[in-house]
Amino acid sequence: MAEGRVRLRSNVVARDDAWHLVPGEVLIARRPDLMKPPNRPTQLQTDESMYYVSCGVCSRPINVIMREGCTQCSHGPTPQQLEQAQEEHRRGLEAVEEERRRRPADD
Hints:
Distance between the termini: 36 Å
Number of helices: 4
Number of domains: 2
Structural class: mainly alpha
Strand content: under 5%
Helix content: 40-55%
Shape: flat
Order of helices and strands: HHHH
Mean pLDDT: 87
Radius of gyration: 18 Å
C-alpha cells in the first residue's frame, strides 16, 4: 500500500442481507453464526475477526506478536518481517506526533 493512502471501510450497510460487507470483528460480535459453516465469511472478515483474538500459546493478539516478535509462537514474524513492522510502527508514531505538533491544542 502506498504511503499516505487512507483506507476506509464503512460499518454502515443499507441492506439487511449484506452481512458480507460487515467487518469481521463486528460480525463475530453481532452474528457469530455467520462465521461458522455452512456460512462462508470472506477472507477479510475472517482476518478481521482474528485480529483481536489472543494466541493460545503466548496470550497476546497477533498485532502485538507481529510488531514485537515472539519466541514461543511458531507463527511469529521472521526477523525481516519484525524489522519492517517495527519500522512501520515507528513511522506511524512519528506521523501522529508530527500531526499533534501542527495542530493547536484544544482549549
